[in-house]
């Protein structure tokens, strides 16, 4: 007879793990107990060796759907006589060790949904219905171990019916920490200056929406601004109140068939849409598109999600709307409002009514966004439904603990501990004060729920002016931790390499901006990455940015800069004739820009791909002012989307200072020539995008040849562009190299903190 | 290390130069326990009996020498008078050293000296001593004027940068960015219309009016690095934070237009006739009224309030809150 002492790490708490263990032990006739320990699960089994082994095999195979096992430690000893007569579930112990973590939030499961829709069930139409397989997790937890008392459900003591379920190991709500019912749980209510008396606030909310009103709806990890997506007036009203003229809004539809009315869905996309993580999936619009045009103006695609909480399911029961606009309720750049008083104050004059509830949101968590390119998924934002699930870095580091603060825009941060890298939810633009405060709060919470008291290393960006950099300096003092400054595109590349299990590659890092090792702004880089080292082996041609960041907002400035040296005619005339309206101060401003090019006053230098695409977009008169991040490049992609691909723009690569340079001015000159000769804008857009993509790919191939490297990778926000990412992939493969891209991480800045963690692990392994 | 232009730009790079090379190599920096060199205030003080002598010096290298709204002569006297004034001391006298390049036109020199005289007469500050040197052609760009001023204040009544307390109101005496933007536009030959004009002026009248009311806790003239630098310096040295209502900061339309064309923040460029004051909230309204009646003070406003935080936060009715940082010499793009 044997006794096995098992400890299981991973996502093993709050996911129905102990009942699953209980049932399995009973089935196999094993005795002993299971209990939660801080952040791992301890199992003691007694019985014959064969059965114990079978138990472990089956546990791995039959574990509950949300759970994840990263490690099982097993100590087997032969014993003479048993100490247990049955198998039981013991009280939690708060001793903590190991590296298990709180699971992410999970969309309402089918069994809970059935109950919500069942007139005879006591949870009929109850929006907060949840069980061990579904419901909020990360968004309600304050500290570990994950027990109801340490969540915002603490304020809702269970009624006797709920308690019975909660205590029965064979019930699917056994220790479901977020379980509740209409008798004991949170309540929704409608508000406008005061609570609106009604016995059915959700039905009333749906009616308001049908009438064209805008609602603020507090949900699981944040608040949405909601209106009908087929009501152009309502959508325009929302746009003008928010001051967001064209940033695309995400939508929610009740089910897949309603989405198919306005967008096409591949099999893989449907899988993502209906997965329990329920991200927003960016889908191509149908050519017949019946929603309001201003939901995603100027774009060929639209972000769509399906209901993920009882609230959503019930709302859709009361309306015939094919989709609601569901956009994060915040001031531009600021975090979403999550407290009732802030929601009503902050959105005064924006929302007509407020659909609120009385459960606190502990961890703010924006919706995740994914996009498929050539059938492969990429994260645009990895947040609700995924965060804070860790990435495994045990092959790089067992013991280092690090806090990595990311860049400045689209920030996530990461906690590296015990070989696991916990990437936070989406934080946002940390140049905003309130977002910086959110970052600091979120750091405290994530360190708390991962049981991290102090760290050895603080990693941050190389940019000297980022507020995350000064925060890193402050924290390194507080923890007496080393500070590691990681170049932005190197961090991008390291995240990509981790995602693909690659130790060396030539990486194309293409995005808007990152502080370069030479103090200029980078963003179209070919980096050779090997271990903790990298070298810059190629880039787009460095171009002046007259007016600095102003050239990002007004891309015609970039266009002028890139054409200036090569253009034969009178460039001033050209701009006055074709692009005058792209300069808010008119002719006078064109003269200023020309003068800035001459004197160099406030003209940074950038090799950014984003700026090159912006310039093409401006040249073709697709976009003359950027009102949201990536707008000009996204609209360029949408314009090119329906092109036949009959034009070709050649690209030219030269070698300068020992690195390859792609002549972006040359590409712009060809764009102007094609415009002159009357070619279609869509065709020119397509050809120009392709030239940039293949130029980058060719530089990477040339460098890989020089270096004898076989893997080429693509990272950075530009790789969200499907046309560019496919063109690069095909070009690289054609030339006999393998191509890697992000699969389980963001191509954009959302995974910079992960890359910084990899850099720290590599640096301190030496 | 070699000195770059950024070492004179008034940002963090210059602060580093000052602490690493200058402060670390000078040992006698203070007299009779007054304000000394390493305080890096607007000037120094020498307590003598019931009074303190306040002293400040400034080397002026303006390009161009003549610009809309003033010239190097006006700035060299007004600048030093202002540094004395914002220490809370009545400016008394100026010493001036001029270094001229061989070949410098006599008529230009005369115009410059007349400008110096005009400010001296306006403020009642005498120019009491001086020196003139000439350097060989090519060794110096036209001219440099160094002025040193002294003023006097009752012992213990000096106003320091570090005196701001949580709750104090922040008064700004007028529009920002005028001098820096006018000079930049003019120097770079952008050919702007002449609405753009330097604000160079002596601020003693406004300061005197404020001091007569009382309650002034800190003062600074937002020259190099603009109000972004001055507000951060006040906050840092006083160990407080502040919230500033951005809608209350006056920026002339023409300055705003030029800043929007150059991509340069009007908060980060020099002013030569403005004061930022921290004032006890009880006195703030009265001080504001007094300043508004004084010369150059008609557009004074209360722009914000100090608090116990550690950042300078700009608040706008529409745009929420952002952190106003002290400028660095060369801004690096950060918008993605
Ligand atoms: Fe990036
Ligand atoms: Mg002072
Ligand atoms: Zn469920
Ligand atoms: Zn209940």
From TrEMBL, chain A:
The keyword S-adenosyl-L-methionine does not apply. Pfam families: Acylphosphatase, HypF_C, HypF_C_2, Sua5_yciO_yrdC, zf-HYPF. Pathway: Protein modification; [NiFe] hydrogenase maturation. InterPro entries: Acylphosphatase-like_dom (IPR001792), Acylphosphatase-like_dom_sf (IPR036046), Acylphosphatase_CS (IPR017968), ATPase_NBD (IPR043129), Carbamoyltrans_HypF-like (IPR051060), Carbamoyltransferase_HypF (IPR004421), DHBP_synth_RibB-like_a/b_dom (IPR017945), HypF_C (IPR041440). Signal peptide: none annotated. Residues 199-385 form the YrdC-like domain. GO terms for biological process: protein maturation. This is Carbamoyltransferase. It comes from Methanothermobacter marburgensis (strain ATCC BAA-927 / DSM 2133 / JCM 14651 / NBRC 100331 / OCM 82 / Marburg) (Methanobacterium thermoautotrophicum). The gene is hypF.
UniProtKB/TrEMBL annotation, chain B:
CDD domains: HypE. Pfam families: AIRS (PF00586), AIRS_C (PF02769). GO terms for biological process: protein maturation. It comes from the Archaea. Coiled coil: none annotated. Residues 165-314 form the PurM-like C-terminal domain. InterPro entries: HypE, PurM-like_C_dom, PurM-like_C_sf, PurM-like_N, PurM-like_N_sf. Residues 41-153 form the PurM-like N-terminal domain. Belongs to the HypE family. This is Hydrogenase maturation factor HypE. The gene is hypE.
